[in-house]
Design brief:
Blueprint: H1 2-32, H2 39-42, E1 47-50, H3 53-56, H4 60-64, E2 68-70, H5 78-91, E3 96-100, H6 116-119, H7 125-132, H8 136-144, H9 157-165, H10 186-200, H11 207-226, E4 230-235, H12 240-246, H13 253-259, E5 263-266, E6 278-280, E7 283-284, H14 286-302
Parallel strand pairs: 1-2, 1-3, 3-4, 4-5
Antiparallel strand pairs: 6-7
């Protein structure tokens, strides 16, 4: 029996050791480094952007030039953004928050496509209980243990594979951010737009999770109001073909925000006929990033929204 127990302990120790090695050399650089800026870096700014990949496609250096820190990340849900906002409020004294209120941001597809495993680091027990409804032991494990056991999360496999194969791939246009949606034929643009629409606007709506995302959005609005933080909604640019394919489809995050007296800067249609600014139907490329920041800065100036770097 003692030998059996020793073998089990040795096996578990090996599993933990292998997971930790994977965490240090793969999981940390791939999953976490870019998601967690230092408090010193955040404290340089008064203005922050919270968004999903629409915001992440805007270059950090472009937004930094107009005094805005890009805290957006691919697949962030409103719950992820709420946890980030709470963290900012406790550590960085934000004065203005730019928040994505696009047509898809309340979509139930965020139930599966989100950054819970990352944003959990910003989460306290009360918010965890509110949004995830699980017990305290689950909170402790998920926040303090689970990140260091990356092989237990099967969702990491594709990311790890992409990371490892990236060392052997030659960069193409899309990977360096200069690819052009404009290079596609009309038929290819429509097909790409249809695929994107079907992904972001699934037919099997989940009212429970939709309400949970609305609750997170409402809590962000309340937190900003309570702490005298200016909250500005932003609708990001879409390519003409995608706007046509979408029609009136929307989960109405912008309408919900407006009802709460949040000002919304609507740039959704600002680049119609300028497909060279997009890498795909709803994400800007590097050229589009610069043009978007220029247009956003104009809107800020017109509305007396001042964003400056505290410690350049």
């Amino acid at each position: 029996m003692n030998r059996f127990i020793k073998n089990i302990l040795l096996f578990l120790l090996c599993i933990v050791f292998i997971n930790y090695i994977v965490y240090i050399f793969i999981a940390e650089p791939v999953l976490y480094d870019d998601y967690y800026p230092s408090i010193n870096e955040l404290n340089k700014y008064k203005c922050f952007l919270l968004s999903d990949s629409h915001g992440e496609s805007v270059e950090k250096k472009d937004l930094s030039e107009v005094g805005i820190y890009n805290f957006a990340f691919d697949s962030d849900s409103y719950i992820d953004m709420m946890l980030k906002l709470n963290y900012l409020n406790n550590n960085a004294a934000p004065e203005t928050i730019f928040l994505s209120v696009d047509d898809h941001t309340l979509s139930p597809y965020r139930e599966n496509m989100n950054n819970r495993s990352r944003s959990i680091r910003f989460c306290d027990w009360s918010l965890y209980k509110q949004f995830y409804g699980q017990g305290y032991l689950s909170y402790i494990f998920e926040k303090y243990c689970y990140p260091y056991l990356p092989l237990l999360n099967t969702n990491n496999s594709k990311l790890f594979y992409s990371f490892l194969t990236s060392f052997f791939k030659v960069k193409n246009l899309e990977e360096d951010g200069t690819s052009q949606f404009a290079d596609l034929s009309y038929e290819q643009k429509i097909k790409s737009s249809m695929n994107r629409m079907q992904y972001q606007f699934p037919q099997d709506n989940n009212d429970k999770n939709l309400n949970l995302f609305k609750e997170a959005l409402l809590q962000m609005i309340s937190l900003c109001r309570k702490n005298n933080i200016t909250l500005i909604g932003v609708k990001f640019p879409l390519a003409k073909n995608y706007i046509e394919v979408l029609g009136d489809k929307s989960y109405d995050a912008d309408t919900f925000a407006k009802k709460q007296e949040v000002k919304v800067i609507d740039l959704k249609s600002i680049f119609i006929g300028r497909d060279h600014l997009f890498s795909n139907p709803d994400h800007l490329n590097k050229i589009g990033s610069k043009e978007f920041v220029f247009q956003l800065a104009k809107k800020c100036n017109a509305n007396n929204i001042l964003c400056v770097v505290r410690n350049p």
